[in-house]
């Protein structure tokens, strides 16, 4: 081993520069894989916590002999208990010394309560909102809600005690609890979730593998010659293998160490990433020892395999590299078969039968396996067929063009299509992935504005709020409401029996609180029929029969939107804190705002971030590969310059053979990505309609532009590499 280390040290600065670049590529790969694994762990933890809480509260538990059950209720009160658009969970618990005891909770008496850290902070920082009063009368704070009961660190939750009288009066609301269920590790995931995680992993891993492969093979030609020379002077295969192993271990060890240090040091963005506006638990995102070992083992194995595969010719014979040229294998059309299989599966999934099969068994493993398999087949097919496509296009260009640079570039591209496509492969995969995800989420912007159009509450004026309740509001409610300093006017409206969701509003109030008016000639006291639950209509007809003895609902003008939280507390004070009193406050201002489901919005943001990272890695691999190609071709480029080719023609040759395969392969991959993304969206959503948005063209065009600029900035290397003084010793 000492001889191998000595030979490695004497291999020159170029070898250590290559090892440094390989280590950097490995470090970036390890960091990104660590982030992805931690993110998946966090999402799985989020799913487990959600499932545990739902099983604890909503599921009917089997009786356990000898265990007296505790009781628990998770009341739903509409949005009356929301705080700034976020739901506040309440768990009402009855337990005694003789019943089942909830883990990490004391036996609570009525008036005793726990608060989640986020809710405690909100109550302390916003005392005028009087949030706690919305949930009952409390007299003793017991501490913070244990972590296992909270889905996220930002969850708003209150756990309060009740007595046997409360349970007996609302028996139908309380579940019998014999066990907590926190030890249950099974969490159901639907096909869409599995597909998104699997596809996301594949999209991230493929470019990283390409990057590491490109960096590892940098300077391969010089290394082959060096190893062949070592064999010529008497080095054994074992010694050459030791050098290869030593190089791999050195680069991998440094890369893994730097990558892990970077992962541990730069976790803040991951810890602050939000789903539904809330973070994931840091404890859920920790990597296990097994996960660390798998990442390290895969990294070491990948690097060693690439090194061995590329250098195996030099080990066969000492003269194998020096006296033979690499045979250029003819590319066969079989390379397109895997791509065709993947496209065929997607084509079937896009049919009516395919969509029905997916939707029929949405939680099963089969749909997920088929979809992910089709996606991976396309990605692998793009990698395999890309060189074949590059070869055919290069030969086509040679036949059509008479330009010297084009002819030379085309001939070389056709002969070395595999090596050339390998350099652009990462960008092609990244653009395919970007096209897939951006097309999948493209319908959200359109949906948000369509939601406004179809939202009947958008008929309300900005300063109008609607107060409704499934329980009868007190007779004095309107008078009390009008006395509030932030309420300037109040009007009453009534539900109609003819159509569910249709209400009767007096004509004089209709124009005041909405942007609609009654038909011409209508009297101020006549009632208009308006449906706030259905899309906006142009004409508001008059109501025929209105029963004013029915439950009253209220329209009010609020002086500022900030007072809505105080209004919620006021409504609760007048309706009670019982779970039967489901009430809602709807704001005209909020109803006019574009609304996107927070989960979809978070996933879209994650998709954009992932695409950005993937493009970065892919472009880095393209630049590294281009640098390596220029270094390995130094002698042939120098020969072309000696034969009379001008430097500008030489640079044009490099741009043609680098950019042309990139652009053509990118067009194909983007087209496939758009189609597969649209197929995915239509399968799993009936409301989202995929389109090509400006954001899509900005991402794709920006990625290609950065890649082309990166290649262009490397052109000065051609001048340095083809100078006579740089080739004297060659």
Question: What are its keywords?
Answer:
730 residues, alpha+beta, 4 domains, six-stranded mixed sheet, six-stranded antiparallel sheet, 24 helices, 14 strands, elongated
Task: Describe the secondary structure blueprint for this structure.
Layout: H1 2-9, H2 13-57, E1 70-73, E2 88-94, E3 112-115, H3 117-125, E4 140-144, E5 156-161, H4 164-169, E6 175-177, H5 191-216, H6 220-232, H7 237-265, H8 268-271, E7 274-275, E8 278-279, H9 289-316, H10 337-349, H11 352-360, H12 365-400, H13 404-415, H14 417-441, H15 443-454, E9 464-469, H16 477-482, E10 487-495, E11 502-506, H17 507-513, E12 527-531, E13 553-558, H18 564-575, E14 583-587, H19 588-591, H20 598-632, H21 634-642, H22 647-684, H23 694-713, H24 716-721
Parallel strand pairs: 2-5, 3-4
Antiparallel strand pairs: 1-2, 1-6, 3-5, 7-8, 9-13, 9-14, 10-11, 10-13, 11-12
Explain this structure.
By secondary structure, the protein is an alpha+beta fold. It has 4 domains: 1-60 and 191-327, no CATH class; 62-177, no CATH class; 382-457 and 597-730, no CATH class; 463-591, no CATH class. It is 56% helix and 9% strand. It contains 24 helices and 14 strands. The chain has helices at residues 2-9, 13-57, 117-125, 164-169, 191-216, 220-232, 237-265, 268-271, 289-316, 337-349, 352-360, 365-400, 404-415, 417-441, 443-454, 477-482, 507-513, 564-575, 588-591, 598-632, 634-642, 647-684, 694-713, 716-721; strands spanning 70-73, 88-94, 112-115, 140-144, 156-161, 175-177, 274-275, 278-279, 464-469, 487-495, 502-506, 527-531, 553-558, 583-587. The strands form 3 sheets. It has a 6-stranded mixed beta sheet with strand order 4-3-5-2-1-6. A 6-stranded antiparallel beta sheet has the order 12-11-10-13-9-14, with helices on both faces. Strands 7-8 form a two-stranded antiparallel ribbon. Helix 2 runs antiparallel to helix 9 (289-316), helix 5 crosses helix 9 (289-316) and helix 22 (647-684) packs antiparallel against helix 23 (694-713). The chain is elongated and about 100 Å long. Mean pLDDT is 76; it is low at 321-328 and 447-454.
């Amino acid at each position: 081993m000492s001889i191998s280390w000595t030979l490695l040290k004497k291999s020159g600065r170029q070898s250590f520069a290559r090892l440094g670049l390989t280590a950097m590529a490995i470090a970036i790969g390890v960091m990104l894989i660590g982030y992805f694994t931690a993110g998946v762990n966090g999402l799985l933890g989020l799913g487990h916590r959600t499932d545990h809480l739902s099983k604890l509260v909503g599921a009917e538990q089997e009786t356990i002999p000898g265990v007296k059950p505790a009781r628990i209720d998770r009341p739903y009160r509409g949005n009356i208990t929301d705080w700034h658009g976020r739901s506040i969970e309440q768990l009402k618990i009855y337990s005694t010394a003789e019943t089942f005891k909830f883990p990490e909770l004391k036996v609570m008496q009525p008036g005793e309560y726990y608060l989640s850290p986020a809710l405690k902070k909100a109550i302390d920082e916003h005392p005028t909102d009087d949030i706690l009063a919305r949930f009952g009368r409390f007299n003793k704070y017991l501490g913070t809600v244990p972590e296992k009961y909270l889905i996220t660190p930002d969850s708003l939750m209150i756990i309060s005690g009740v007595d046997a009288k409360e349970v007996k009066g609302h028996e139908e609301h309380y579940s019998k609890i014999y066990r907590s269920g926190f030890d249950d590790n099974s969490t159901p995931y639907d096909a869409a979730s599995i597909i998104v995680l699997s596809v996301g992993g594949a999209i991230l891993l493929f470019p990283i593998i390409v990057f590491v492969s490109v960096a590892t093979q940098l300077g391969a030609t010089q290394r082959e010659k060096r190893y062949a020379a070592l064999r010529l002077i008497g080095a054994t295969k074992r010694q050459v293998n030791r050098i290869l192993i030593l190089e791999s271990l050195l680069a991998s060890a440094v890369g893994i160490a730097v990558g892990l240090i970077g992962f541990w040091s730069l976790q803040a963005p991951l810890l602050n990433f939000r789903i539904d506006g809330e973070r994931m638990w840091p404890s859920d995102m920790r990597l296990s020892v097994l996960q660390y070992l798998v990442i390290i083992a895969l990294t070491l194995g990948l690097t060693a395999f690439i090194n061995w595969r590329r250098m195996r010719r030099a080990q066969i014979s000492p003269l194998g590299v020096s006296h033979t040229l690499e045979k250029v294998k003819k590319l066969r059309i079989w390379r397109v078969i895997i791509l065709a299989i993947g496209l065929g599966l997607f084509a079937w999934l896009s049919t009516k039968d395919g969509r029905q099969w997916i939707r029929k068994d949405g939680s099963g493993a089969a749909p997920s396996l088929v979809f992910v398999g089709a996606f991976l087949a396309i990605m692998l097919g793009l990698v395999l067929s890309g060189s074949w496509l590059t070869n055919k296009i290069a030969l086509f260009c040679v036949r059509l063009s008479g330009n010297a640079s084009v002819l030379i570039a085309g001939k070389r591209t056709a002969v070395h299509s595999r090596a050339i496509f390998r350099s652009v492969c990462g960008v092609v995969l990244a653009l395919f992935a970007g096209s897939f995800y951006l097309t999948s989420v493209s319908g959200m912007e359109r949906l948000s504005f369509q939601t406004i159009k179809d939202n009947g509450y958008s008929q309300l004026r900005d300063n109008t709020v609607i107060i409704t309740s499934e329980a009868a509001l007190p007779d004095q409610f309107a008078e009390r409401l009008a006395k509030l300093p932030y309420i300037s006017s109040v009007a009453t409206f009534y539900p109609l029996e003819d159509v569910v969701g249709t209400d009767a509003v007096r004509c004089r109030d209709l124009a005041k609180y909405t942007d609609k008016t009654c038909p011409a000639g209508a009297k101020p006291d006549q009632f208009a029929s308006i449906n706030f639950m259905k899309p906006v209509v142009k004409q508001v007809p008059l109501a025929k029969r209105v029963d004013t003895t029915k439950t009253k609902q209220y329209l009010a003008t609020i002086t500022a939107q900030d007072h809505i939280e105080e209004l919620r507390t006021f409504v609760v004070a007048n309706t009670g804190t019982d779970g039967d009193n489901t009430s809602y406050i709807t704001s005209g201002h909020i109803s006019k705002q574009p609304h996107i489901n927070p989960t979809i919005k978070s996933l879209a943001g994650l998709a954009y971030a992932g695409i950005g990272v993937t493009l970065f890695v892919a472009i880095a691999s393209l630049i590294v590969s281009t640098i390596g190609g220029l270094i390995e071709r130094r002698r042939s480029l120098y020969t072309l310059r000696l034969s009379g080719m001008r430097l500008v023609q030489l640079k044009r040759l490099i741009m043609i053979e680098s950019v042309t395969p990139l652009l053509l392969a990118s067009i194909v991959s983007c087209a496939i990505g758009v189609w597969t993304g649209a197929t995915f969206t239509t399968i799993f959503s009936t409301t989202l309609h995929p389109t090509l948005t400006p954001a899509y063209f900005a991402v794709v065009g920006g990625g290609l532009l950065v890649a082309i600029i990166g290649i262009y900035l490397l052109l000065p290397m051609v001048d340095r590499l083809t100078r006579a003084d740089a080739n004297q010793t060659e």
